[in-house]
Write a structure and sequence with these properties.
Radius of gyration: 22 Å
Strand order of the largest sheet: 6-13-12-11-10-7
Mean pLDDT: 87
Number of strands: 13
CATH superfamily of the largest domain: P-loop containing nucleotide triphosphate hydrolases
């Protein structure tokens, strides 16, 4: 099944709503699908060793939050019948690159070793949420991308900003400009216009706060997760942040689901929450308890967690054992919790989600 056929099937099933702007993008994704299959066959042919892999020009899909960019990319990824494909959140990919650089310390030009490793297993590399904020990433990215392009790795990326805006106020940005030029040369840059924020629509329908007294609250959470991640690959593998493992219930695309204990027990810290906020746009949290006065670590971490999610304007879907007002009613942080309570209430509002 081609990506366009898959998209149309999802529309017929009612998983998504047909969108004219998305259909135009899907036509280009379909063309890329056929080009990749043709090139893949040539690379597997009898005389493949005599030819240099031809680079198939990729895609750079950019536009606002919640307009379906990730779903469109995943239509391509899921429909491609070959296994030499990789899909990663861009932040996770750069974490992997930094770890590989540590592993290859002392080697001549370790970035080329990393490019060889990727190209050996990957003809298509999909990045979700490409953004460049750190100078170290900015300086690495150009050489690494050029090495991947030279090895015939096709790149498809989603981003909230157009290439010319990447790393806009970064240190020594002039050194990053050739990277922007390379992205524009080796990918078709496509703006996906905002016609409807699908996540906001889904969250309006499903709700964002559930209490244990709600009938079938767990089932409602599952439906909400399914709506927000339709078409994306679901993983239950733990996250690895700051050399520590964080268990999750599941994650797909830029949506992640945690149990309260995984987030608000030592050795968690605010640094973990900041890293999560860089990777994801929507966070689900289950089994938030009524926190007693004696649980100082739990309430401290919970307050820090909500502050980070609120400050990053992440969307929060939460299942708690009590109403927001009753989660923490007494203890040495009761005053501080009033601000957290206020944030939690605001995070349920349509105005917050619209931002």
């Amino acid at each position: 099944m081609t990506p366009l056929a898959y998209y149309q099937e999802q529309c017929q099933k009612g998983v998504i709503v047909a969108d004219k702007a998305q259909l135009l993008v899907m036509q280009q994704i379909d063309a890329l699908y056929h080009a990749l299959i043709l090139e893949h066959k040539k690379r597997k042919g009898r005389l493949a060793f005599l030819r240099k892999p031809k680079l198939v020009r990729g895609l750079y899909l950019w536009g606002g939050v919640g307009i379906g960019k990730t779903f469109l990319m995943d239509c391509l990824y899921h429909c491609l019948p070959f296994s030499k494909k990789t899909r990663m959140h861009f932040h996770q990919f750069m974490q992997w690159v930094h770890q590989e650089l540590k592993n290859h310390q002392g080697d001549n030009d370790p970035l080329l070793r990393i490019a060889d490793k990727v190209a050996k297993k990957t003809d298509l590399l999909c990045f979700d949420e490409l953004v460049v904020a750190e100078i170290t990433d900015a300086m690495l990215l150009g050489r690494l991308l050029n090495a991947l392009f030279a090895r015939g790795v096709c790149i498809v990326a989603t981003s909230n900003i157009e290439p010319d805006e990447l790393y806009k106020k970064g240190l020594q940005r002039q050194l990053f400009l050739p990277t922007i030029a390379s992205i524009k040369q080796h990918t078709h840059v496509i703006h996906v216009p905002i016609t409807l924020d699908y996540r906001l629509r889904h969250l309006k329908t499903a709700g964002v706060f559930f209490s244990a007294n709600d009938e079938e609250a767990e089932e409602d959470m599952e439906k909400c997760f399914a709506l927000l991640t339709a078409g994306s690959t679901v993983s239950k593998a733990p996250l690895h942040i700051h050399d520590r493992s964080i268990n999750i219930i599941k994650q797909a695309g830029d949506v992640v689901w945690f149990d309260f204990d995984s987030l608000c027990h030592v050795p968690r810290s605010q640094h973990d929450y900041l890293a999560i906020a860089k990777i994801y746009r929507t966070v689900f949290i289950s089994h938030v308890p009524v926190i007693p006065a004696s649980a100082k670590n739990h309430i401290t971490l919970f307050i820090h967690l909500i502050y980070v999610l609120y400050d990053a304007r992440l969307r929060l879907v939460m299942l708690a054992k009590a109403d927001i007002e009753k989660i923490y009613t007494e203890g040495h942080l009761a005053f501080e919790y009033q601000r957290t309570r206020s944030r939690l209430l605001e995070m349920q509002s349509e105005g917050y989600f619209s931002q």
